[in-house]
Specification:
The protein is of the alpha+beta class and 273 residues long. It is built from six helices and ten strands; from the N terminus they run ββααβαββαββααβββ. The structure holds adenosine-5'-diphosphate. One of its GO terms (molecular function) is phosphorelay sensor kinase activity.
Length: 273
């Protein structure tokens, strides 16, 4: 009933029988509490930039500003608008991931295509502030069973975090570590950034969990990136692994099981006779 198990017990009672019906509502209470927390978090995340925007609108309306001051206010308003746009876009992505069926297992996404696209995104985000090293995937060529845009968004989220949590001058390395027909393969995103203390690691894929809220927001984070990654990987039968050391850096790995990875030996090209 309502997805909950109803237990029925029949016990002797006086001259007759007593029927006892029990329902364990622990799961439902937990789900209700999570839903309430989520709504409260979303409201808070939207209210903050809205309040700031309202303040700026008032400033623009009531204060005689110089053209330079006006430009500064408009730039700050754009920042807050972008923040809300990213939040809504991440919320929609999460909702779509939760509501859509698992991606078909017979669509093969080449690893090299994912790496090429994510390299362009990393360059655009880093704007030359970091040393970006993208290793060639090598031979035989690997492909992953799944959904190209979802896999790309998972990898891009890890790379964007590496850029945002690595100070200027740091190094970010991305590679595909080939498995075999029986061994899993994996994407590795390694940075020399601020790292994450051990006690935070079990919670970083929770929605809106941030180690340092102000740093995450300042760099354009929504607090939803890793929960999107987690959902995408679950749908692809893959797993997320993290090693990190504060002050030294982090290494995130997307581990793809052998059954969802295919390797194809490149056919040697035939040169001129
Ligand atoms: P956010 O939008 O805040 O980055 P995420 O869900 O992507 O949200 O990540 C959750 C938190 O995990 C971040 O707020 C940050 O504290 C931490 N984190 C994620 N990736 C890294 C990284 N590469 N280096 C250091 N901290 C990270």
């Amino acid at each position: 009933q309502n997805g909950l198990t109803l237990s029925v017990q029949i016990r002797p009672y006086g001259d007759g029988l007593r029927l006892i019906l029990t329902q364990d509502v622990t799961e439902r209470l937990r789900a209700d509490a999570m839903r309430r927390d989520f709504v409260a978090n979303v409201s808070h995340e939207i209210r903050t930039p809205l309040t700031v925007l309202a303040g700026f609108v008032e400033t623009l309306t009531n204060l005689p500003l110089t053209p330079v001051e006006r430009q500064r206010v408009l730039a700050l308003m754009t920042q807050q608008t972008n923040r809300m746009q990213s939040l809504v876009s991440d919320l929609l992505t999460l909702a779509q991931l939760e509501g859509s069926p698992r991606p078909p297992a017979d669509h093969w996404v080449p690893v090299s295509a994912l790496l090429q696209q994510v390299e362009l995104e990393a360059q655009a985000l880093s704007k030359g502030r970091h040393q970006l090293v993208f290793h060639e995937p090598g031979q035989p060529a690997a492909a992953i069973a799944g959904h190209q845009s979802e896999l790309l968004s998972a990898l891009a989220n890890l790379v964007s975090n590496a850029v945002r949590y690595t100070p200027d001058g740091g190094r970010i390395e991305v590679r595909w570590l080939a498995g075999s027909t029986t061994q899993p393969g994996c994407f590795e995103v390694r940075d020399t950034g601020i790292g994450i203390a051990r006690e935070h690691l079990p919670r970083i894929t929770e929605r809106f969990y941030r180690v340092d809220g102000s740093r995450s927001r300042e760099t354009g984070g929504t607090g939803l990136g890793l929960s999107i990654v987690k959902h995408v990987l679950q749908r692809h039968g893959a797993e997320l692994e993290v090693d990190s050391e504060p002050g030294k850096g982090s290494c995130f790995r997307i581990v793809v099981p052998a059954v969802r990875t295919r390797y194809v030996q490149a056919v040697p090209s035939i040169g001129p006779a």
